[in-house]
């Protein structure tokens, strides 16, 4: 990794799974607010900066995920706008180096699978390494055992990761559990350092049209072509002809 460079990490996962707590664990101090946060719509994000003792710097984009396997039609326009703003912001900062997918140690669900697809397949086009961060494991005698028990289930849902960290992100624990919290910091930092891609991914030519058309697959009902052209021109600042071409490429999934 180039000395002095900053790695960009996108963290995602359902509300309350422990994203803010994981950021604080990684930082070694309280920089992110623990819930309840104000409700945010899908792909809205907050940015945090973390520097490890060895000097490596990270910019963490804490993003809001889907709360159900599908998106309501009304949620489609703001999600699209957030995705567009997020990719541009990431581009300005050199692209994404790592995805952290945060889940609570429990059973694997359809919403988890949808979020995995939204961020890894749709948003990052499978071009960014993904690390699974499993929280709430302080009661496990060996936290890593969760992964061994659930690897088959993850496989069944097609959730694939370059690495994983089984941990506890709850900071108000004492005694033996406190030791597990400290152990968790080492596990998390190790996996982040091991899997950050050297080059940031920024999304290629045609990213927007491709993302819009993939996102449609998640929406209940069919978004209107005129609504999409409206967002692209009014909110994303795109020229009308370009927006029309984008909507045209998406084609038959849209209602005219
Ligand atoms: N027992 C236990 N509690 C945890 C763990 N991680 C987080 N929590 C608790 O779960 C609650 C939610 O944690 P947050 O870190 O705010 O979750 P979040 O994903 O950032 O939530 P949103 O920002 O609302 O999406 C808090 O009360 C945390 O203290 C964990 O590993 N174990
Ligand atoms: Mg949070």
Radius of gyration (CA) equals 19 Å
β-sheet strand percentage? 5-15%
CATH architecture annotation of the largest domain: 3-Layer(aba) Sandwich
The ordered string of helix (H) and strand (E) elements is: EHEEHEHEHEHHHH
Contiguous low-pLDDT stretches (5 residues minimum) are none
Main beta-sheet strand count, sense and barrel state: 6 strands, mixed
- Which ions and ligands are bound to the chains? guanosine-5'-triphosphate, magnesium ion
Q: Give the averaged pLDDT, no decimals.
A: 90
User: Structural class of the secondary structure composition?
Assistant: alpha/beta
CATH H-level homologous superfamily name of the largest domain: P-loop containing nucleotide triphosphate hydrolases
CATH topology of the largest domain: Rossmann fold
Shape: globular
Give a brief description.
It is built from eight helices and six strands; from the N terminus they run βαββαβαβαβαααα. With 256 residues, the chain is of the alpha/beta class. The chain has two domains: 6-195, P-loop containing nucleotide triphosphate hydrolases (Rossmann fold), CATH 3.40.50.300; 207-253, no CATH class.
Word description of this protein:
- Strands 2-3-1-4-5-6 form a 6-stranded mixed β-sheet, with helices on both faces.
- It is globular.
- Helix 6 crosses helix 8.
- The chain has 256 residues and is an alpha/beta fold.
- It has 2 domains: 190 residues, P-loop containing nucleotide triphosphate hydrolases (Rossmann fold), CATH 3.40.50; 47 residues, no CATH class.
- The model has no long low-confidence stretch (mean pLDDT 90).
- It starts with 5 loop residues before the first strand and ends in a 6-residue tail after the last helix.
- Bound molecules: guanosine-5'-triphosphate (GTP) and magnesium ion.
- The site of magnesium ion (MG) has 4 residues, from helix 1.
- The site of guanosine-5'-triphosphate has 16 residues, from helix 1.
């Amino acid at each position: 990794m180039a000395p002095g460079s900053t790695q960009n990490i996108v963290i995602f996962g359902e509300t309350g799974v422990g994203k803010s707590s994981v950021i604080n664990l990684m930082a070694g101090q309280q920089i992110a607010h623990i819930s309840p946060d104000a409700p945010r719509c899908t792909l809205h994000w907050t940015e945090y900066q973390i520097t490890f003792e060895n000097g490596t710097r990270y910019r963490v984009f804490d993003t809001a995920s889907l709360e159900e396997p599908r998106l309501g039609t009304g949620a489609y326009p703001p999600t699209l706008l957030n995705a567009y703003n997020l990719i541009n912001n990431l581009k300005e900062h050199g692209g994404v180096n790592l995805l952290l997918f945060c889940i609570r140690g429990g059973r694997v669900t359809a919403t988890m699978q949808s979020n995995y697809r939204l961020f890894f397949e749709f948003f990052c086009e499978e071009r960014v390494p993904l690390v699974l961060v499993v929280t709430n494991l302080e009661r496990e005698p060996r936290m890593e055992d969760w992964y061994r028990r659930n690897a088959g289930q993850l496989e069944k849902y097609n959730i694939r990761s370059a690495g994983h960290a089984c941990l506890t992100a709850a900071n108000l624990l004492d005694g033996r559990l406190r030791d597990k919290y400290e152990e968790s910091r080492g596990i998390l930092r190790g996996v982040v350092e091991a899997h950050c891609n050297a080059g940031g991914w920024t999304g290629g030519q045609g990213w927007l049209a491709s993302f819009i058309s993939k996102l449609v697959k998640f929406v209940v009902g069919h978004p209107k072509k005129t609504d999409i052209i409206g967002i692209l021109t009014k909110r994303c600042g795109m020229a009308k002809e370009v927006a029309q071409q984008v909507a045209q490429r998406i084609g038959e999934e849209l209602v005219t």
